[in-house]
Please model this.
Amino acid sequence: MNLIKIICFLILIILNFLGSVAKTAYQYKKIQGFCPDWKIKYKLKCKSTENELTNYLQDYPIKRHKPIVIIAEEQFLGTGQNSRPWFSPKGGIWLSAAYPIFSSKFSTEIFSLSFAIKLCEMFNMESIKVDLKWPNDIFFDSKKLIGFLPRVITRGKEITYVRLGLGMNFLNKTPVEGIALSEILNTRKICRYYWTAKILKTIHESVECNDKKEYIIDNANKYLTKKHLPRGYDSNYWSIKEIDNNGNLRIYDETQEKILMRF
Model:
């Protein structure tokens, strides 16, 4: 009898994840326009979607026009910038994506910014005003809504693909410095599959606009918050000037100007 219960439980889990893939794919197809189809994989719980993606790509190398995303309901060993722990409880949107490039002309220094501004535009379309905290956080009212980590994978002079690890506070409890989308909208009746699909479309759009450097830098400065300096710089002494044409952040104090580089 116990064996039957276990089997039934496992079947329900499998059906749930098949349903998650189908629901995300359905929402994506409704909004995708000319975007490519994604290979979507869901995990109930994992150490890190980044590790899962790395393992997957070892067995199934990325192909042209075949982006891949792994989405987890919960991570328990996620890491953020500079290997800091990434709080990833159930209820958020935690994913790692690989998007094929196969070009030597891709501009790596502004990819992080192109994705950031497309995220800001995505929220603006939903009447949600957000800011970019350089280089890779999206803030709402001085609280962190999204964090992401971009990586570029090369082979010789060719950019093979870009990777993005992303965490979005959605329906989850957050640390005091964070905020969930459900708090912003003041409702828990929001569809994770819809928002996941919008993020996938945003990744595609950020790649497509990579050759529009002036547009990316102009909009990055438009969305840039000057209230929050990068870690290690005291706002009592330093101020933010702008993002320069190479995607670097220019800051200054009373005696000097400094350039902070993303990579």
